[in-house]
């Protein structure tokens, strides 16, 4: 077979593959009927839980599950059986505001594990090419790489939770003061919440927006804030939500409570900053001892050394 025929065959295969990719991309990008209809019929009985009307996710995890679905699902089920703790995962995903199911998270863990497996396998292949042998060790290392990838995704979820809670703590005093000012100006708690949510952005504002949406759909204000207190992993936010719920139920003054909670958060932040500085005192001395002090000594003694060199016969 001549080079011309090889070129024609490869060009034809490349063109056919490109056509298939473009056609599939157009089908994937087209909005589904369920995506357009479900927001309008979600309140009907059993419609939100009907498998045929579930909104398709556009995340990379769902795309990978759509392509390699059976294999990834079986691996995710195996990870779930080995690790367990679906309640803890669901709780942390709620605290991190991740709108995914536990199974999707397990699929992500499998993908992270496969990434670790691939990295270790690539290293093993390169090592085998230079020095053959040690296949059993390579298999064990690949298994360890898969396990480390799975554990790394779980640790990353915990890191996401902590990062979001730090952002909430940073936003809390401002949000509480804005609510207190709105309530003190004569607005009701729901109107003050609407005003604050409309003029702020952030993690805590998103949580309050969900509370406001629940109130507007007919849920009592106290119940909506009780749900926020139950799902939040921060005691300060829980006390904030419970304080608003109690104030709405019993008619107690709300502005003073919000001012006091904002002051408590600011004081807790100052105490945490002092504690962090005390714990990192040695690390704070590292640039002083190894950078500033040698430069100071050099500037103090270098002119004398130069003068001795000049005066020495």
Automatic annotation (TrEMBL):
Alphabetical list of InterPro entries matching this protein: T2SS_GspF_dom, T2SS_GspF_sf
UniProt-annotated location(s): Cell membrane
GO cellular component terms attached to this protein's record: plasma membrane
Keyword Membrane: yes
Predominant subcellular localization, coarse grouping: membrane
Superkingdom, taxonomy of origin: Bacteria
Annotated keywords: Cell membrane, Membrane, Transmembrane, Transmembrane helix
Type II secretion system protein GspF domain boundaries: 177-299
Transmembrane segments: 6-23, 110-126, 132-152, 282-302
A Pfam short name: T2SSF
Protein name: Tight adherence protein C
């Amino acid at each position: 077979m001549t080079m011309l025929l090889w070129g024609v065959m490869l060009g034809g295969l490349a063109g056919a593959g490109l056509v298939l990719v473009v056609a599939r991309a157009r089908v994937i990008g087209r909005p589904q009927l369920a995506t357009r209809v479900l927001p309008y019929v979600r309140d009907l009985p059993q419609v939100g839980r009907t498998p045929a009307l579930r909104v398709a996710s556009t995340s990379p995890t769902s795309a990978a599950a759509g392509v390699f679905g059976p294999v990834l699902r079986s691996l995710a089920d195996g990870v779930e059986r080995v690790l367990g703790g679906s309640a803890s995962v669901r709780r942390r995903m709620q605290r991190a505001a991740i709108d995914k199911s536990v199974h999707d998270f397990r699929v992500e863990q499998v993908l992270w594990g496969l990434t670790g497996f691939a990295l270790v396998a690539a290293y093993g292949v390169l090592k085998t090419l230079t020095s053959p042998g040690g296949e059993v060790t390579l298999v064990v290392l690949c298994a360890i790489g898969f396990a480390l990838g799975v554990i790394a995704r779980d640790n990353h979820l915990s890191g996401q939770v902590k990062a979001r809670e730090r952002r909430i703590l940073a936003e809390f005093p401002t949000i509480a003061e804005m609510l207190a000012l709105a309530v003190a100006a004569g607005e009701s708690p729901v109107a003050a919440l609407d005003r604050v949510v409309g003029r702020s952005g952030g993690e805590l504002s998103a949580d309050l927006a969900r509370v406001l949406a629940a109130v507007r759909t007919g849920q009592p204000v106290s119940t909506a804030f009780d749900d926020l207190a139950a799902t939040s992993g921060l005691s300060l936010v829980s006390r904030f939500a419970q304080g608003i719920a109690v104030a709405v139920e019993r008619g107690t003054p709300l502005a003073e409570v919000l001012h006091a909670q904002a002051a408590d958060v600011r004081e807790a932040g100052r105490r945490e900053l002092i504690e962090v500085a005390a714990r990192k005192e040695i690390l704070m001395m590292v640039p002083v001892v190894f950078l500033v002090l040698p430069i100071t000594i050099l500037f103090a003694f270098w002119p004398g050394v130069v003068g001795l060199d000049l005066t020495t016969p």
